[in-house]
Amino acid sequence: MVHLGDWLLDRQLDDVAGGLLRRALEERGIGFLLGKQTAAILDDGQGGVAGVRFSDGEQVDAQLVVMAVGIRPNTALAESCGLHCERGIVVSDALQTYDPRVYAVGECVSHRGVAYGLVAPLFEQAKVCANHLAQLGIGRYQGSVLSTKLKVTGIDLFSAGDFMGGEGMEDIVLSDPAGGVYKKLVIKDDKLAGVCLYGDTADGAWYFKLLREGRSVADLRDTLMFGESAIGDAGVQGQSKAACMQDSDEVCGCNGVCKGSIVKAIKDKGLFTLDEVKKHTKAASSCGSCSGLVEQILMSVVGTDFQETPKTKAVCGCTERSHGEVRKAIREQHLLTHAEVFHFLEWRTPNGCATCRPAINYYLLSSWPHEAVDDPQSRFVNERVHANIQKDGTFSVIPQMKGGVTTASELRRIADVADKYQVPMVKVTGGQRIDLLGVKKEDLVNVWQDLGMQSGHAYGKSIRTVKTCVGSEFCRFGTQNSTQMGIDLETMLANMWSPHKVKLAVSGCPRNCAEAGIKDVGVIAVDSGWELYVGGNGGIKTEVAQFLCKVKTAEEVKEYSGAFLQLYREEAYYLDRTVHYIARVGLDVIKARVVTDAASRQALYQRLLFSLQGLPDPWAARIAGAQKNEFIPIKLEA
């Protein structure tokens, strides 16, 4: 049951369109109670919601209440300074307050009695304000014409201007209830005064342009209802809507982005995908209803390159082969060594270089686990010595603490090692582990031996850590045992190499104290199970993880997350984070192989378990004598 006020059905649409919208939503199982005044939200006695009581005495049961009440201008500071305020801070057409030394723009102001709650008017106000502050001339802000384009459960809605009609106004209406389409244009003095579209909003931006420009539509009247494509002077027949637009035409109303800004970003920054355009211009990054138009603009600028994958770079200067071609050859030809790769792919240099050797080493190991031979000299120093090199040439040692859990015995050993080897700094990391910083290279093996703990893999392109909160075992808000889930995941993934570092987190409830939303794999507990998110990154550019699926059991968490990581290990290019891999192949493709196709998921999961089976802890191997020469200082004779 949904209780909506008059805003959506009465103010944004007229009666006919509102009726169509309501009927369509009711068919989707959504109910409406209109014209109601909420008197009380009823408590269930356990800190939750039991229902809602209205002012007329009617009551409905509810487990969740969401209130969308808009914004209220914050005028407290202005009022304390003595500025005149009504609905907001009152400003003139120059955006000056009653004190001419003070300007105000945005959602806090009231201009001609109107307070705007959208971003597009803010941009228009800011231009006028900046013009005055820079003394570049006189500009006037005369108010904004607003439009609303909503997408409600797949139903398109658009409204702008005064579409309710009135004295001196004329309505042009197209109504097709069976087809779910309704259009209403309101004309006054041969100009478009308002528009209301339901079901087909493709021409919303064009109508909005006519409305804002105040252009006469007398010569367009006969075909105006049928949109821009029916207007003879709109452009060359056969051209897309994007091609007919001027650079000054607005594409994204949510963020105030015009076509010219999008075209300039595409050309200047070499953009090829919709996601890239979103990141650089913000167009289509809010409601998404203009995504199709942005794609048209992108296609018109880059041509066929939009349809193709952007040109792939060669692995390095030793070859013209791309990462994808190298992986394919290793897999199809069952290549097991660097020498075989160099020979089969006709490498220009007989032994490769510092760029291609690490990539090939990873591709060999991930394609043929337990067959391909790991080449330590094809790894960077951190992975060769299994510790992080610091700027002074010493190393940091981070022992594994599964799920961030440790014991008093481990803490004592860490303290003893810090004292024995005079470790300059002992620091708690953001991944809930303890870092011993400043260990000399020749002391590494002895430090590992004295610690008696496994490697925390904080140094390589590998599994790093699984961060957890305390979960249901101790926290009064916890819904699942997140700590144990984190320990189980870290145990399963121990010693896993990957194209880049991989971080996981498990939160015991939606409060998400473990910050699972910015991890390569994030697991969030809910009452009925677990939600899985992928592709998060908290690095230089924060990327929020995307929802993958919801599962019920802890075993399913391991299977689904393991299948995703194995797909990433098998298909991502070396040094690609999960977010880059997802951007390249698309989340829908990943969901199809990990979530929808059970056979594919199980096969991926089994391949992951097989590849990790029997792998020794690297610290234990070095303690046993592996690669001793790496840790013995070179003594130069006098």
Per CATH, the class of the domain at 463-612 reads Alpha Beta
CATH architecture title of the domain at 463-612: 2-Layer Sandwich
Task: Report the radius of gyration as a whole number of Å.
Answer: 31 Å
How would you write the strand order of the largest sheet? 6-7-10-9-8
| Helical fraction | 25-40%
CATH topology of the domain at 463-612: Sulfite Reductase Hemoprotein, domain 1
Instruction: Describe the sheet with the most strands.
Output: 5 strands, antiparallel
Task: Find the count of extended strands (DSSP E, 2+ residues).
Answer: 21
Strand content: 15-25%
CATH H-level superfamily title of the domain at 463-612: Sulfite Reductase Hemoprotein, domain 1
Backbone shape = elongated
Structural class determined from secondary elements: alpha+beta
Report mean pLDDT, rounded to a whole number: 86
Q: Number of helical runs?
A: 21
First-last Cα distance: 88 Å
Low-pLDDT regions? 1-12, 232-238, 307-311
Offer a concise description of the structure.
With 638 residues, the protein is α+β, with helices and mostly antiparallel strands.
Secondary-structure map:
Layout: H1 6-11, H2 15-27, E1 38-43, E2 49-54, E3 59-61, H3 76-80, E4 89-91, E5 109-111, H4 119-133, E6 147-152, E7 155-161, E8 170-176, E9 181-188, E10 191-198, H5 204-213, H6 241-244, E11 250-252, E12 257-258, H7 259-269, H8 274-281, H9 291-302, H10 323-332, H11 338-344, H12 356-367, H13 381-385, E13 388-389, E14 395-397, H14 408-420, E15 425-428, E16 434-439, H15 444-451, E17 463-468, H16 482-492, E18 502-507, E19 521-526, E20 529-534, E21 546-551, H17 554-571, H18 578-585, H19 587-596, H20 598-612, H21 618-623
Parallel strand pairs: 4-5, 17-18, 18-19
Antiparallel strand pairs: 1-2, 2-3, 6-7, 7-10, 8-9, 9-10, 11-12, 13-14, 14-16, 15-16, 19-20, 20-21
